[in-house]
Amino acid sequence: MSGGSEGVVQWRPIPIPIPLPLPPPSAVITSEGGSGGASLPSFSLASLTAGGGGGGGGGGGVGEKESEVAPLPPPPPPLPSPQQLLRHPLALLALVPNSVALFSAGAISGAAAKTLTAPLDRVKLLMQTHSLRAAQGGGKKGFGFVEAITMIGKDEGIKGYWKGNLPQVIRIIPYSAVQLFSYEVYKKLFRKKDGELSVLGRLVAGACAGMTSTLVTYPLDVLRLRLAVEPGSRTMSQVALNMLREEGLASFYGGLGPSLIGIAPYIAVNFCMFDLVKKSLPERYQRRPETSLATALVSATLATLMCYPLDTVRRQMQMKGSPYNTILDAFPGIVERDGLIGLYRGFVPNALKTLPNSSIKLTAFDTVKGLISAGQKELEKITQENQEKVVS
């Protein structure tokens, strides 16, 4: 060649593009290469931050980019199979909402307790209201426990001992359910910031629960009294229509004031004592049903002794033609006519009725709460087993 130049031949490898698999739909492209050569994109299944890289010949990089994608939630574990539920039957209780289970437990325990103790309740009502009925009708003043039992059997037969029990059962189902369920709600409401519930908090929770249930079901309680003490055989609807026609709507709420005042300390003392005594016992005894039964007897006895006079005042204010309009009228009126003992008339049958009634109700409710807690633990075991199967 002219000028003494020589040609130089150099062999260089030519890159052959290799096809790459496409990234999955959730991949995120995070950077691109710089100049001086091809740079393949990088990708990530989750969140990734990457810097741009230089190319082959020395160009500058591209600024960083950030992108975030939330990770997909893990699939839920499968529901318990019939075979698992057969092996862990208590787990069925955990599938029922807690509020429904507690409501049902309160209703069933209350209805059973009231039906079993209905004869004693009828005797108590007759003894509480006898002096007022005798003053209105000219009968004798004295009326004892044995005499009341004998009179009911002689005049009305066996069915007479359960007279007025139907409205009582109809009333006690929502009454017990609302009372026990609302007590649990009020306890949560009055807890301190550290989760502890003081004695005062328990008393206030019990008082609120008692007043709530009384206010909701009070007309049925008045109907029960009228059926139990008024002569003749009438149905609940007949008594209700007669009261509405002759005495007006206000007759369904006669004695509501002393009822609220009486039930508030009774339920407060009863429930608070029950909780505190149970809590003070060793843990191995707390879950035993006989412990609940004994604790309920103690708490009900103390509460009944304190609050019974208000119950007598309430019953006499509920009577048709009662001369008492307020508690201030009723207390001195009863004491003047019957003495202080008049405030405690019917106390023996009431104690015989209240103690087993309260014990049955609280024991049954406490037992169901324990079963619900055990069922939740069984369901957690099943859920954990199913989760391990999914992961593996």
From TrEMBL:
<dbReference type="Pfam" id="PF00153">
    <property type="entry name" value="Mito_carr"/>
</dbReference>
<dbReference type="GO" id="GO:0015748">
    <property type="term" value="P:organophosphate ester transport"/>
</dbReference>
<dbReference type="GO" id="GO:0016020">
    <property type="term" value="C:membrane"/>
</dbReference>
<keyword id="KW-0812">Transmembrane</keyword>
<feature type="repeat" description="Solcar">
    <location>
        <begin position="197"/>
        <end position="280"/>
    </location>
</feature>
<protein>
    <submittedName>
        <fullName>Probable envelope ADP,ATP carrier protein, chloroplastic</fullName>
    </submittedName>
</protein>
<dbReference type="GO" id="GO:0009941">
    <property type="term" value="C:chloroplast envelope"/>
</dbReference>
<dbReference type="GO" id="GO:0055085">
    <property type="term" value="P:transmembrane transport"/>
</dbReference>
<dbReference type="InterPro" id="IPR018108">
    <property type="entry name" value="MCP_transmembrane"/>
</dbReference>
<feature type="region of interest" description="Disordered">
    <location>
        <begin position="49"/>
        <end position="83"/>
    </location>
</feature>
<keyword id="KW-1133">Transmembrane helix</keyword>
<feature type="compositionally biased region" description="Pro residues">
    <location>
        <begin position="71"/>
        <end position="81"/>
    </location>
</feature>
<feature type="repeat" description="Solcar">
    <location>
        <begin position="97"/>
        <end position="189"/>
    </location>
</feature>
<comment type="similarity">
    <text>Belongs to the mitochondrial carrier (TC 2.A.29) family.</text>
</comment>
<dbReference type="InterPro" id="IPR023395">
    <property type="entry name" value="MCP_dom_sf"/>
</dbReference>
<dbReference type="GO" id="GO:0015711">
    <property type="term" value="P:organic anion transport"/>
</dbReference>
<keyword id="KW-0677">Repeat</keyword>
<keyword id="KW-0472">Membrane</keyword>
<keyword id="KW-0150">Chloroplast</keyword>
<keyword id="KW-0813">Transport</keyword>
<dbReference type="InterPro" id="IPR002067">
    <property type="entry name" value="MCP"/>
</dbReference>
<feature type="compositionally biased region" description="Gly residues">
    <location>
        <begin position="50"/>
        <end position="62"/>
    </location>
</feature>
<feature type="repeat" description="Solcar">
    <location>
        <begin position="287"/>
        <end position="371"/>
    </location>
</feature>
<keyword id="KW-0809">Transit peptide</keyword>
<keyword id="KW-0934">Plastid</keyword>
